[in-house]
Amino acid sequence: MTILNFRDEDALGRVQSVDTTTVVVRVDDVESLRALQVNRLVALQSSLAGHNLIGVIHKITRTSVERAKLADEDEGSPHSEMNLVRVTLIGTLIDREGSRQNIFRRTLETVPEIDACCFALEGEHLTRFMGVISDATAGAQRLSLGSYTLDLEAEAYVNGNKLFQRHALVVGSTGSGKSWTTARLLEQIAGLGNANAIVFDIHGEYRSMDGEGFVHLRVAGPGDIEAGRGLAEGVLHLPFWLMSYEALVSMFVDRSDQNAPNQAMVMSRAVVEAKKEFLTAGGHSDILSNFTIDSPVPFSLIAVLGELNRLNAEMVPGAKAGTEKMGDFNGKLSRLIQRLESKVGDRRLGFLFPAPGIADSYAWLDDVVKLLIGGRAAKGGAGGVKVIDFSEVPSDILPLIVGMVARMAFLVQQWSPQGQRHPIALFCDEAHLYIPDNISSGAAADATATFERIAKEGRKYGVGLVVISQRPAEVNRTVASQCNNLIAMRLTNGDDQAVVRRLLPDSLGGFGDLLPVLDTGEALVVGDAILLPTRIRIAKPTNEPLSGTIDFWDRWADLASGSALNTAVESWRKQTLTSTLLR
Fold first, then answer.
1. In 10 A of CB 114, how many CB atoms?
2. What is the pLDDT of residue 481?
């Protein structure tokens, strides 16, 4: 069935001029011109039979043009009007191709001829066309976002494969609906029988996500350390021995110290020896012959400290018999030792330095990898989407810790046998906090390098990124540029708008003007996962995220409204949220 069966007498106007992707249509009927809106769709006759070109209205003008003065006209002759509509061509709708009908392609095999008819896509024609777009976009991999703003009766889908294969960027000012959109995506992922995703929940917004497809974890806080809570209680420790060598150096070595190179070298030797001792004691000879400093092998920090203290105080035989002189590293490791001891004693970092027996066994990593990176089917049908609450992680090392989990996911996928990799998506909420464009610390540099590698190489290993941020201008440019799908909600900051405009195709540059006027919960969706770049009204998720938006005026006017200041002060002192402890 042909969905665009227009008659010539229904034409909005006729083509007056044609450029590569731009068409100017002359509209003679003023009432038809008044009914038009910028960013609405139109269809134009193609020079090929059975083809219709689809375009977006970019500009509407109504200009008065003085008639040529004829010999018999006086100075008071009337003026005519030139009503023009500028249209940007975005694709072709083909009635039939082989056994397939109504195919939309984002290509332009032809351009319209001069005087070709132009028709407004509205009413039943629009509904049928949007149905074609949804079917062609998603196929069997349907991921529903909501409905098209152009036609609220037509459900809007994106292609689930292409959305995660080619990474996605979800941006919008605070309160625009980013968390709502993320929750909408997560609920549909969690409903799949073998779902696999990790959510980096920086502020605990996604604790409300409920169902068998979700499992909730939190990075251990001081209260969890004191109570000895572990994985059985949903408390996650991320021990120091999981860090890469670069991450260890960035955390423990002060690069401004003139002895930093010596400290880094000595520390690497001590760590390698400590890992050898662990493997030897456990009888893991097969690992012992092949491991490197970056291999995830537990080791004793006490042994490393002991070796550093020995070298820092070492005296060696002097040139003369019976004399001694300071060793090569005598006194040069003091600051390294102090920093290491200070970090180990910091109760905020208890998840990095857990008590003996919690995260120092050879089998611990297998359990954590199965929990975090295993799909839903691998765990009896539960917990395909892992929501990790990082709200109690100190902000200064947040990039390091988030990067550690991301690195773990990537390396497990990389070292999985070809053909046996189960894909995983990483949802990076508040990404600007740990994938910054302006790197100011070693922790941020290490995390950014990890995410850059995932953005560039993740598709090959089945790792997809969903980068979520209210400040796209502050997100690492390399990571953002690798996101071939964009879900942009309202943005009011000029720098953020500029980032999104750079990600839009040249032919859709005008869509960037919509960013500051999008409604709450409305998004501009562009990319490989959707055939037609368009505005979509995101549907309400079943479980709304805990966005924390407070109604100031209503609360101020409510005399019964109270606050828990005493509880807040106690939580501040304990560095543990009371609500978290009660979970």
1. 10
2. 93
Count of CB atoms situated within 10 Å of the CB of 319: 6
Side chain identity, residue 372: L
**H or E element, residue 134:** helix 123-138
Relative to beta strand 235-236, strand 485-488 is unpaired
pTM of the full structure: 0.87
Q: Is the pLDDT of residue 75 over 60?
A: no
Phi, psi of 20 (to 5 degrees): -55, -50
Is the backbone of residue 519 left (phi > 0), alpha (psi -120 to 50) or beta?
A: beta
pLDDT tens readout for residues 259-279: 899 999 999 999 999 999 999
Instruction: Identify which of 352, 365, 344, 357 has the alpha carbon closest to the alpha carbon of residue 393.
Output: 352
CA distance 220 to 435: 22
Helix (H) or strand (E) holding 142: strand 142-148
Mean pLDDT computed over 224-241 = 87
For the purposes of burial, counting CB atoms within 10 Å of the CB of 24, is it exposed (0-12), middle (13-18) or buried (19 or more)?
middle
Find, among 414, 394, 356, 412, the residue nearest to 239 by Cα: 356
Unique residue bearing structure tokens 């949007």: 130
Q: How confident is the model at residue 402 (pLDDT cuts 50, 70, 90)?
A: very high
CB atoms within 10 A of CB 38: 14
What mean pLDDT is predicted for residues 467-473? 95
Eight-state DSSP code of residue 166: T
H-helix or E-strand spanning residue 45? strand 41-45
Spatial separation of the C-alpha atoms in residues 162 and 400, rounded to whole Å? 29
The mean pLDDT value for 289-308 works out to 92
In this predicted model, what pLDDT tens digit does every residue of 105-141 receive, in sequence order? 888 888 899 999 999 998 888 888 888 888 777 666 8
Please say whether the dihedral angle defined by the alpha carbons of residues 352, 354, 360 and 364, taken in this order, is positive or negative. Answer: negative
